[in-house]
Batch of 3 targets.
Target 1
Amino acid sequence: MKYLSISIVAIALLAGTAFAEDKIATLRDAAITETLSPPAMAPAVNTHLKQVRNYPEQPPLIPHKIDGYQVDLNANKCLTCHSRAAVGESQAPMISITHFMDREGQFLASVSPRRFFCNQCHVTQAEARPLIENTFVDIDTLLKQ
Amino acid sequence: MWSIIKRFWHVMRTPSVHYSLGFLTAGGFIAGIIFWGGFNTAMEVANTETFCISCHEMRDNVFAELKSTIHYTNRSGVRATCPDCHVPHEWTNKVARKMAASKEVFGMLVGSINTREKFLEKRLVLAQHEWARFKANDSLECRNCHSEESMDFTRQSKRAAEAHERFLVPGEKTCIDCHKGIAHELPDMKAVAAAQQ
C-alpha cells in the first residue's frame, strides 16, 4: 500500500514536470471554468506557386487561401475551378484521374463521392514555427546519406 | 357607379366658392410634399438592415450566415448591409424592387419559409432571382462599393488579378458569375450548370 501511494505520487510528479516542459497541450490543460485564448491564426500562404511534394504520393498542397470556401452537400467551391469542365477558364490544375475512381476502381463520370471533400487530403500552409521538430527527409536526401 | 363618376367630375370642374386658387395650389403643394416625404421616409425605414432582420426568416438564415463572411467583419471595419447588396440606389429601380419585396413580405405573413427546411427548399429559386438580377444589372450593387477602375490588380492575389484581367475587364463576365455565395451559403448547385457556378 505504501509503495503504491509513493509510486502514484512519483508518477504524478513526473507527469507534472512533463507537462511543464512540454508546451503543447494534447488535452485542455486548464480548469474547465477557464476560457482559454487560442493562439493567433497565421494567414495561409497565398503565393499560387506549386510546392515540392515530400514524397510522390503526397496530395499536393493548396498554394492559396481558401477562406470561406463552401464544400458541402450543396456546393463545392474548389471544383468551380478544378473540375474537368472548369479548368479551361480557370487555368487551375484539374483534379487527378484517380478522383473519378470509386473503390472498385471503376471510373465515374465526375468526381467520386469518396473524393468530394477536398480538405481531407489537400491543405493550405501557414508561415508558422513548427511546434515539434520534424526529422523527415525526402527520398533523395535519404539515398545520399 | 356612372352617376358617382359624373358627380365627382362635376365637383372637380366647378370653381371653388370658398377657397382662393392660391390657397388650393399651395395646399396641394404642401400636401404633396408631406405624402412624398412620408412615402420616401417609409421606404427609408424599410431600407435598413434592422428592418430586414426583424423577421426570423432572415435573421436565422441569411443573416446568421452573413456574420462569418468578409462583408460582416473584416480588418478595415467597412461592412455591407442587406440593402447595400439587395436594394438598387436609383429611385425607380428601388420602387420596383420594393414592390417585389411586398410579395416577399406577403410570403412571410403566410409562412412560406417560416422553418429552416422550408427556406432551404425555396433557396435555389430565391437565389436564382438574385443571380438573374445581378446578371441583368451587371452586378451594380457590388460595383457601388467595388469599382473596377479603382482595383489595383498588382495588389490583388495572382489568381484574382488573372481572373479579373481576363474576364472582368473585357466585360465577358460580371461579379456574380464568379462570386456566387459571397454572402450566404449556396443552395444545391447540382441543378446549376457547372460553367455557371
Note: Chain A touches chain B through 21 residues (CB under 8 Å).
Target 2
Amino acid sequence: MLSMKNISKVFKTDLVETHALRDFNLEVNEGEFVAVTGPSGSGKTTFLNIAGLLEGFTSGEFSLDGVNVSNLSDNKSAKVRNEKIGFIFQGFNLIPDLNLAENVEVPLRYRGMNASERKRRVESALEQVGLGARMKHLPTQLSGGQQQRVAIARALAGEPRFLLADEPTGNLDSLMARQVMELLENINQQGTTIIMVTHDSELARRAQRNIQIVDGQVCDFSMYQPAATGTR
Amino acid sequence: MLHIKPILSSLMRSKSAPVLLLLQIILSVAIVANASFIINERLSLMQRESGYAEDQILTFNLYNFDPAIDNMKQNQVDQQILRSLPNVIDASYSNMLPLSGSGWMDRYVDGPDADTAKSTPGFAFYLGNEHLLNVMGAKLIAGRNFTADEINTSLDDSGMMALVSQPLAKAFWGDESPLGKTMYQGEQAVTIIGVVDKLQGAWVDHENFEYSVIQNIDFGGSSSNKSYMVRALPEHIPALEEAISKALYAENPNRVVENFQTLTTIKNLTYSNHRLMATVLSIMVVLLLLITALGLTGMVMFNIQRRTKQIGTRRALGARKRDIIEYFMVENYLICIVGGVIGGMLSLVLGQQLMSLYSLPMVPVIYPIISVIGLLVVTTLAVIVPAAKAANISPAMATRSV
Ligand SMILES: Nc1ncnc2c1ncn2[C@@H]1O[C@H](COP(=O)(O)OP(=O)(O)OP(=O)(O)O)[C@@H](O)[C@H]1O
Ligand SMILES: [Mg+2]
C-alpha cells in the first residue's frame, strides 16, 4: 500500500544541512493502523509530509497504492492528496471564516463534486463524528476536541484510502484525546489505513503497529507489539 | 469551477479590512466615473472642428491715434495694403475674432412687428466685407457671398444681407432653405443670401457656439481701434508680422500695430482652462487607480501573511496552485464588483448633484461601467502577483507553520 525505500530528506539552509530522514524504509499494508513515535526533531513530521505528498524528498523510492509517486507534477500530487489521502493536523487547521459544513466541504469542492453530492457527504461525515447538528457553527464556537472531530470529518468526507495524522491529540486533554482515538479506531475498522504520529505512548500502544523514528530512521517495533501490549 | 459561495461567506465574516477596501473602491469608482466624464467632455469640446483655416489666419490690432486720420478711408487703404503684401492670400477687417472669447451677439426676428415675430436663437454677429469668408477659410454651401458693391459701412444702411451658419439655419428653419428669407433687426430688413457650413462664434462654452451670422457691413471706419485678419500659408506667417507692421507704419506712423496672434494661438489660449482641467483630472484618476491598486496589493499581501497556514492546508487538501490564485482573484473581484456597483450608483448621484450645481450634463451610465471595468483590470494587475506568490506556499505549511 505504502512503500518507502531508502528515502532521504535533506533540508539545506545557508549554514547547515539537516538530514531529517536517512535511508528511511517502511512498508505499510492496506488497513493497518500505524502509530509513529520518536523524539522531537527525529523526522516524524517530515516522514508524514512525504507520505502525504506535502513535500518532496531528496532521494529514494516511494510508491503509494502501487503507483510510483516520486516525480509527480504539482497538479498530480494535489489530485492524489485530494482523492486518496485524508489529513488530520495537531492544530486542527480549520478555516476560521468558514462554518463547519463549509470546512468539511473544502476538499470536495477541489474535487469538483456537484452540490448535492457534497451536501450528502458533508452531512454524513459530520454525523459520523457526532456534530451533525452544528453544521452552521463556526470553528471558534467549538471546543478543541470538537474542532478536531470536524477536521476528521473533513478528512473522511473525501473517503480517502489513507488517513495521515500528525499528533492529532497533541492539543487535547486526555478525555478528548481518547474520544478522538476511538473515532480513529472506528474509521480504521471500516478499512481506512491510518498512520498517526503521536507523543502519547498510551495512545500509541492502542495502535496495531508501532514504529519509532530515531534520527531520521525507522526502528520498527511491530514484532514486539505483543510484548508491549502484554505490559499493559 | 469558481467557488464563489464560500469565498463570499468568508468575506462576510471577516470584517474590517474588506470593508475599508470596499469604501475605497466605492469612492474611487464614484470619482473616477465623474472625472473621466468631465475629461471626456472637455476633450470633445477641444476636438471640435472650428471650420476655420486656423493656422493660416494671422490676426492683429490696429489703433489709430492721429486725430487727423479719416478712419473710414484709412480702413479701405489699409486693407488694400494688406492684400497687396507678398504671400498674403486675402485680408479683411472683422468686428470680432473667432474663438477669442469676446465679440458681438445678436438675434434676428422673422417679421417687422416685434410683438408677433419669432426670434432666432442668439448668434455670433460678424460684420465684414466680401473678403471675410475667404480669409476665414469658411465654406459656403448654399447661396452666394456678398459682392464688393453690396458692402455697407453702417448698421443703419439699407440693403442688409447675411450669411448664416448651417447649424443656425437648421435650428431656426429646419429642413427649409433660409435663402431669400427676410429677417429683421428692429425695423431693418436683412435678406439671407448664403449658408456657411461651419462658422463658430467667440465663446467656446456657449451653447450657441455654432450659431453665427456674417452681415455685409465693413464697420472698420467707425472706430479707431480695430482688428484685422490676414490669411497666408503657415510658413509665411512669421515673416508677415514684420512686413505688416512695416507697411502700415510706412502708410502712417501715427498708430500702433500690435498683438499679432494666429487663430491657432487664440484657440489654444481659449481652451487652456479646459486643457488644464482635463490634465489635472487625468492625473487624479491615475493616482486614484494607483492608490486603489496599492490598497488591493497591500490587503492581498496582508491576507497571504495571515493565511499562510490556511493556504498550506488548502494545498494539502487538494487545491492546485491555480485554485489558490483563483481564490484571491475571486475574492478581490467580488469586493471590486460590489464596490463598483455601489460606487457606480454613487457616481450617478454625485453626477446629478454636479449637474444641478454647475449645470453640467448628466453622467451617462457608460462612465461608471467603464470605470468598473478599468478597476477590474487594475484589480487583476494588483492581485495577480501576490496571488501567484501565495500559490507557491508549500503544502507542508499545513504541518510546519503555527
Ligand atoms: N523546513 C525546514 N528547514 C530546515 N530544517 C527543517 C525543516 N523542517 C524540519 N527541519 C528539521 O528536520 C528535522 C526533523 O524535523 P521534524 O519536524 O520532522 O521533526 P519531528 O519528529 O516532527 O519533531 P516534533 O516531535 O518536534 O514535531 C529537525 O531537525 C528540523 O529542525
Ligand atoms: Mg512534528
Note: The two ends of chain A are 30 Å apart (CA to CA).
Target 3
Amino acid sequence: MASGSEGFRRASRDWLGTHFPRALAGLGPRYMSSETPPEPTPAFLAWKRAIAEKGWGVPTWPCQYGGAGLSEEEAAILAEEMAAAGAWTPIGGMGVMMFGPTLLEYGTEQQKLRHLPGIADGSIRWCQGYSEPGAGSDLASLQCRAEDKGDHFLVNGQKVWTSGAQWSDWCFALVRTDPSDKRGGISFLMIDMRSPGVTVKPIRMISGSSPFCETFFDNVEVPKDNLLGATGQGWTIGKRLLQHERGGISQMSSDVPPLHALALTHLAISDDGRLADGELRVRIARCEMEALALALTVARIQSESEEGGPPQATSILKNVGAWLAQERAELMLEILGTRGLGWEGAGFAAPELEACRQWLFSKAVSIYGGTTEIQNDIVAKRMLGLKDA
Amino acid sequence: MPLSIQEQTMLADSVGAWVARESPVTAFRRVRDAADPLGFDPAAWRSIAAMGWAGIAISEDQGGAGLGLAAAGLIVAGLGRALVASPLAATIAASAAILHGGDEAQRRLWLPSIAEGTAIASIACDEGGHHDPARLRTKAERVASGWRLSGVKPFVAEGSAATLFVVAADTGLFLVPADTQGLAREPRSMMDSRGHASVSLDVTLPADARLSDADLDTVLDGVRALAAAEMLGLADAVFAMTLDYLRVRVQFGRTIGSFQALQHRAATLFTRIELVRSCVAAALAALDARADDSRSLVSLAKAQAGDMLNLVTREAVQMHGGIGMTDEHDVGLYLKRAKMLEGAGGTSAFHRDRYARLNGY
Ligand SMILES: Cc1cc2nc3c(=O)[nH]c(=O)nc-3n(C[C@H](O)[C@H](O)[C@H](O)COP(=O)(O)OP(=O)(O)OC[C@H]3O[C@@H](n4cnc5c(N)ncnc54)[C@H](O)[C@@H]3O)c2cc1C
C-alpha cells in the first residue's frame, strides 16, 4: 500500500488512541443495535462529540456537510483501525445509512446544507415513512396524499411500521401527488415531525419494546422546499434509498464477534478440543463461512461497480445478510440453551436476556427493507430477466 | 386398550369444544398480562380437572381414565392449539412416571389426588441450559432416616404451582412434595410467560421417597412425547392462521396466497406437519405399549417436531409480514412457546444424536 495510506493509518490509530474511551471498547452492539441500550455515559457523549467534530461518523461525506471527505480507501483503513481498537461509531440510524446518501445524490445544495450536518453529528434523527397498511410489498400502491397548494403540500394519510418515529425529528416519506399514475404519481417529501397534524402511536413488538409506530398525517403543511427531486420522481428516488437500506442490512452481522468463541466457553468440549455437539459445530461453521462468503462478495461487487453507490445486487446481499442475522440469533439460543430463553428478572445474565430479545427481533430482518420474497422477485425480474406470464 | 379412530376423533372434538368455550388464546393473553408467577388461571385448571383430563393416563383403579399417553397427547395437542396455559402436560408426564416407576403405596398416595386435580406435579431434571440427563449433579445420598437430596433445578416447568416434584438425581428419581423442608423455589420469567421456577433442594426424604422401579429415560420419554404432541397442536393452529392470512391479504391486486412462491412453501409446511403427526402418534402408542422401539420413536417425534415447528413458526411470521412482528398478533405468542418446547426434553440435535446411538452408530 502507498506510503500516504500508511500515514493515514498511523494518524487514525493515534487519533483513536487519544479520543476513543477504552471503557466503550466492544460495546457498539450494546449501544447501537440493542433492544435495551444503556443510558449514555459521559464517556459516550464525549466520544460522540469528538467523532462528530472529526467528521468520522460519515467519513466519506464531503467536509462542508459534516463529513471528513475521505476516499473509500481511507474509509476502509479507518474502519480497520476502529475494529482493531474495538472502537465503533455512535453516529448511525436511517439518516446516516439511507437518507443522507440519497440526499447527497438528489438534493439541491440548499437542502444538503440544511439537512446533512445534523445527520453527520448525530443530532437530528430521521425516520422512514414508506409502508402503509395497504402498501407493504406493493409499496407503489401507497395512498398517503399530498396535494399541491401552491407554496406547500397538504399531506393527509397514514404510514405504518415507521421505525423510531416517536424519537425522530424528521421523516422522509413517499406520498401520492397524482392518484392517476401508480408510480409516476409518487413524490418524496421531507416532513418535520413537529409539524401540526403529525401524530405518532408506538406499536409493541413481539420482542417487548416498541421501536416502530403508526404515523398519522392530518392536514400537515409541508413547504415546497422539502420536496426532494421533482414532483413525481419519488418512486425512482425512493427505490434508490432502498438500495442503501438493503446494503446496510447486508452488513449487519459484519462486525460481530464470532459465534465459535462463545460456543467454546459455554459448551462441552471433546478430548481433541472440538465442540462435542457435532451438529452445532457444523451449523456454526456454516454460518461463519457464509459470513465470509458474503464479505468477499460485498468487496468484489464494490470493486467491480463503476458508478458510486450500491448496485442492484444489494438484493442478493440483503437476503444473505438477513439469513445470517437470523441464523446467528438462532445459534446464540442453541448455545445458551434454556438460559437464552429468559424474558426478564432474576436468574438470567444481561447478555442472556439480550439474546432472547435479539432472537425475536431478528425475525424482522427478512421483512423490513423489503421482504426476502420481494428481493428474490427483484433479482428474478430485473437481474435475470424472467417475466410473469 | 388404545382408542379407536372414532374415539380419538370424539376426544379431540371435545377438547376443541372445551378450548373454544373456556380458554381461547385471549385467555392466555390475560394470564400473560396478569404476570402471575403461577402462569395459569386456577379456574381453567379446575375445569380441565373436571373434564377428567388430569387423570387421563392414570389407571382406573387409582381414579384415572386409564387411556394412556396416546389419549393424553390428543388433549395436550388440543390445548396447545390455543396456547392454553395449564400444568396439564407436566402433571400427566409426572403421573406416568409414578405409574411406571412407583410401588403400590406411592401410587395410592399420589395418583388419586393428581387425577382429581388437587395435586399438580412436575418432573425436575435439567440443571443447566441444556438437556443432559446423563450428567446430573443433583446428589441423592442414603442417610439413616432415608435420603438426602441436594441440587438446583433452575428451570422447572410449572415449578411455581407444583405441589409435587419428581426429581431426577444421580442415583434415581425421587418424589419430593413441594412443601418439604429445605425445598425453595423462585419464579423465572421466561419467553413463553408460563409458570417456570428455579427449584433448589437441600432436603431429607423418607426411605420410601424413591421411585425404585423408575427408569429415567422412560420417564423423560413421556415428557418428550407430550412436548412433541403440544408442538403439533401449536403447528396446526399457526398453520391454519397463516393459510387464512394468505387467503385474505392483498398485495399487487391479488391475494398473497396466489403467489406460487408462497403456495409451494405452504405445501412444504403442510408436508412437514403431516410427517410429525404420524411420528407423534407412533411415539405415544409405543410408550403405552412399552414397545422395544419406543425410544427411537420418541426421539424421532421430538426431533421432527422441533425442526418442523421452528420452520412453521418462522414461516408464519414471515408470511404475515410486519403485522407478524407485533405483540397484538397471536403468531408471536406461538413463536415464543414453540421455542420453549424446542428445547424441552432435548433439542432436535440431541434426539438425532440419541437416535443414532440407539441404533448403534
Ligand atoms: C421491524 C420492522 C421495521 C420496519 N420499519 C419500517 C420503517 O421504518 N418504515 C417503513 O416504511 N416500513 C418499515 N417496515 C415495513 C416493512 O418494509 C414491511 O413490513 C414490508 O415491506 C412488508 O410489507 P407488509 O408488512 O405489508 O407485508 P405484505 O406485503 O403484506 O407481505 C406479506 C407476505 O407476503 C409476501 N409477498 C408479498 N408479495 C409477494 C410476491 N409478489 N411474491 C411472493 N411473496 C409475496 C411477503 O414477502 C410476505 O411474506 C418495517 C417492518 C418491520 C417488521
Note: Residues 192 and 333 of chain B are 7 Å apart (CA to CA).
